[in-house]
Amino acid sequence: MSRFRRLGETGRAPIRLTIDGAEVWALAGDTLMVALLANTAALRDSEFDAGRRAGFCLMAACQDCWVWTEEGERLRACSTEAADGMRIVTRGTAWRIDAS
Amino acid sequence: MADRRVVVVGAGPAGTRAAERLAAAGLRPVVIDEAALNGGQIYRRQPAGFTRPAEALYGFEAGRARAVHGAFEALSGLIEHRPQTLVWHIYDGALHLLCGTKAERLPYDALILATGATDRIMPVRGWTLPGVYSLGGSQIALKAQACAIGAEVVFMGSGPLLYLVAYQYAKAGATVAAVLDTSPFSASVKALPALATRPAMLAKGIYYTARLALRGVAVHRGITPVAIEGDDGVAAVVWRDAAGRERRTACDAVGLGYGLRSETQLADLARCDFAFDPIARQYLPVTDQDGRTSTPGVYLAGDGARIQGADAAELAGRLAACAALRDLGHSVPAAEFASLRAALAPMAQFREGLDTAFPWPAHFAAGFADSDVVCRCECITAGDLREVALEKGAPELNRAKALSRVGMGRCQGRMCGPAAAEVLADALGVPVEQVGRLRGQGPVKPLPIATEIVG
Ligand SMILES: Cc1cc2nc3c(=O)[nH]c(=O)nc-3n(C[C@H](O)[C@H](O)[C@H](O)COP(=O)(O)OP(=O)(O)OC[C@H]3O[C@@H](n4cnc5c(N)ncnc54)[C@H](O)[C@@H]3O)c2cc1C
């Protein structure tokens, strides 16, 4: 299930990413947040309750859109450009301790 | 004099005009912005490869957007632009920067902070569900990425941006399920005389509202939010109408916001004095009419000083640059100061009108259930805050922060700060100014674990 809806600008070149191991398509020029939320419903688990999170401010202020690469690098999805071949993890990361 | 380093933080309308004025005086300012592209918030640019014309992105403001972007481009070679660079601390006359994973120290002789604003948020039960975004964030999705935050969107809160973003969404082809404004219609009537000081702005507001009506978008005023509902994402907004009836609007996304709050953390780190501003209900850095702060060599301009909108930001940016130039020993014509000050004067009155028309609903804080989440970073509830106020004796925000961790999480109080102050003030039964303000602390945003110091 996707969360964001594209309303235009869909003529851009396609790029390919994986989310939790599954391959998805996005568009060159997407932020990582858009590339992910055009394909899936959330970005990460909340550390403090049972909920999932999908970002909030989109302007690099709230830090609620952190995701992880398979290698364990933390990325702020709203201010990172999506790139072909990115491999992103949105669930139960082993690196959560570092998150504070 | 040629060696003096003047640094401008922020490449929005205020920072652009400041840099332009400094360059015109023969200086080569450093312009730092965390964003990849210049433009700031209102004139935020879409990435390369996007094709929508300025009219589609900025509407009535297309001409101004082009002018501000053009002014910045004309500075190429005359300024040192450092995009994608965060100022994360200010200490001892130097900025601490982060670009990628590289950290660096940059001393300055004069500093103009044009750091803009973020949404002012009043939480509502369910606001941490996936699908709830800030109102400004909803606009960024559309403006910078041509996306809507969902298939059926409710815009809830208050302020002129509520109507503007709803209009922009509807025009771009999104489904707007409702506009839910907490301000009563009577407040707009009361604000009319002040709003009429800028007739063109008032006319735009009326235009957006009329267009929404024409498109059949339901607009409700004087509402009270009850909850955002859903299991693993937004499914509906529950609210009470002006007559007190409970209603439910199905949707899969909510854009939430109540005007803007100035981004003042850097001014705090630069040790500027603050004072309570009763209109903004926020502690703001104290400046003279030209943007000088209490810290010599540090100036403020634009929304980061006080929320007055983009046109005022351009004027204030230029004025702050004039003040910095004069203080550095450059001659600046008195007439330039006079005309900029005169042009800024009506902006303040209009701003007061907006706050009258769309008041911050401070009283909602008293209505939160103890289990309602105030801090979304660490799920700190209204009950947690009331407990530190009443049982642990926290008399002000920084004590409440130490005891409850409110404002200590990854957003450093940007999202919860204004509401946390209201909850605390309500619990203690004191005016909100008495609970003080969260002190800014470096780093203002979390640094990557792999940060490498290069200078
Ligand atoms: C999301 C959003 C949308 C808006 N949309 C509209 C609109 O459509 N119409 C309207 O009339 N008004 C709008 N406004 C109001 C708008 O803020 C002002 O009109 C105008 O953009 C203010 O200009 P400014 O130069 O003061 O700040 P901004 O344009 O906000 O620019 C500030 C810049 O400073 C940078 N910055 C901040 N802190 C740091 C740091 N620590 N390190 C490095 N860089 C930093 C930011 O990245 C940003 O680019 C909006 C505001 C927001 C927040």
In summary, what is this structure?
Chain A has 100 residues and is mostly beta strands. Chain A is 6% helix and 28% strand. Chain A has one domain (14-89): 2Fe-2S iron-sulphur cluster binding domain, sarcosine oxidase, alpha subunit, N-terminal domain (Ubiquitin-like (UB roll)), CATH 3.10.20.440.
Architecture blueprint of SSEs:
The complex is a heterodimer of chains A (100) and B (455).
Chain A: E1 5-6, E2 14-19, E3 22-27, H1 32-37, E4 44-45, E5 52-53, E6 66-69, E7 74-76, E8 87-89
Parallel strand pairs in A: 2-8
Antiparallel strand pairs in A: 2-3, 4-5, 6-7, 6-8
Chain B: E1 6-9, H1 13-24, E2 30-32, H2 54-58, H3 62-74, E3 80-82, E4 85-91, E5 94-99, E6 102-107, E7 110-113, E8 117-119, E9 132-134, H4 135-145, E10 147-148, E11 152-158, H5 160-172, E12 175-181, H6 185-195, H7 199-214, E13 219-221, E14 224-229, E15 236-240, E16 246-250, E17 253-258, E18 260-262, H8 265-269, E19 274-277, E20 282-285, E21 298-300, H9 310-327, H10 334-357, H11 364-367, E22 373-375, E23 380-381, H12 382-390, H13 397-404, H14 417-428, E24 452-453
Parallel strand pairs in B: 1-2, 1-7, 2-3, 6-24, 7-21, 9-17, 11-12, 11-17, 12-13
Antiparallel strand pairs in B: 4-5, 5-6, 8-18, 14-15, 15-16, 19-20, 22-23
Helix pairs in contact in B: 1-3, 1-9, 4-5, 5-7, 6-10, 9-10, 12-14
Bound molecules: flavin-adenine dinucleotide.
